[in-house]
Give the backbone structure.
Amino acid sequence: MNPHLRDVAIPNDWDRRGLPGWSYHSTALLELEKEHVFRNHWQIAGHVCDIPNAGDYLTLDVIGERALIVRGKDGVVRGFNNMCRHRGSRVVADSQGNCKNALVCPFHGWVYNLDGTLRGAARPRSFPDLDKTEFGLMPLDLEIWMGFIFIRFRNGGPQPSVAELLKPIEPEFAHYNAADMVPSWGIWTQKTPVNWKSVRDVDNEGYHVAMAHPALQDLYGATYFDEPFVNGVSRSFATYNPHAGRRWSVRNYVKIAPEPTHLPDHLRKAWVYYGIFPNAVLSVMPESVQFYQEFPLSTGETLLRGAIYRYRDESREQAAARYLSFRIDRDTMSEDVQLSVWSNESMLSESFEGFYFSDLEYGVRTHHDHLRKQLPVLGLETAPEEKDMWNLNDALRSQG
Ligand code: FES
Ligand SMILES: [Fe+2]
């Protein structure tokens, strides 16, 4: 069987430069990214198993926006702005929890039902004209795909529905029964001192695996390949090397992992990563499924966030394998953080002359192409004045 989902030929004469260096350090560009790339594109908030019961909630606090995902008494998962309609306070303060029967704003005590409708204001007689139906929590676009909760901070956007967007990977991903999974260790976050694009650039190619990731190289280095972004989705695929096991964690991982008979042959010894533009990855291993993503905190700081999910009825061997794959992944991530720091800081140097990509890094180029489509100002090699950035980008967009 052809392990490729799509055969995308790499052109002979593609432009091997990356995005201009200034774009990794421009505050004005960051505002444009929030506007055209983050607020209006689908973002993974979590998984339905993170909020299994009525009143369970999770929040996502990024790019100046606050999302609140809550499961209603009817079992339905809904998304709202985590913003009280009275004076804008957070309605819930924690990143995850349970609010019993209602959401009570910690500022003055307005009470919302779990479906977002306003139950009532505190001291209601002090609002003689309040029409409760006008003051429910503001809903967010929300779609559940294979158990993963996707939200959009701005209603509508340039992407189709999540179901449509992820259709190319659906048949393969469906083998993992992700909708039935449960959390492994919960949602994690971590800060890293680089521009978010530097994180993504490193993650979007496997050319560096042989040099920088000894455990991954041991596990699957000989077979790894990347399929570039097409219509917002990429895929990277690797099967275990026949003699994997020079390193302790890899040796034990391939030894302990039970034969995953629920998977078709080509996935039984495979790790697959599905990139979702602009900033997320869903990845699958025989014993677990995970998401990870990054959000800009400033031009030079990024929030990494993710979670690993496991089979509800996993065996002890599966659990051990999941722990070992987590260890391999954790080491890989810290190696990637270092690489992104070195690449990112170079762009402050006068001597930085841009990237020069290998054919094995074509995936990075296609991610940049997706960004350029939303932000044509990225086509400018020389940094525009910060104060002109917004208008210039608008003008270039309207030229289309
Ligand atoms: S801001 Fe929520 S009750 Fe006042
Ligand atoms: Fe890496």
Observations:
- The radius of gyration is 22 Å.
- The pocket of FE2/S2 (inorganic) cluster (ligand 1) is lined by residues 84, 86-87, 89, 105, 107-110 (CB under 6 Å).
- The longest strand covers residues 288-298.
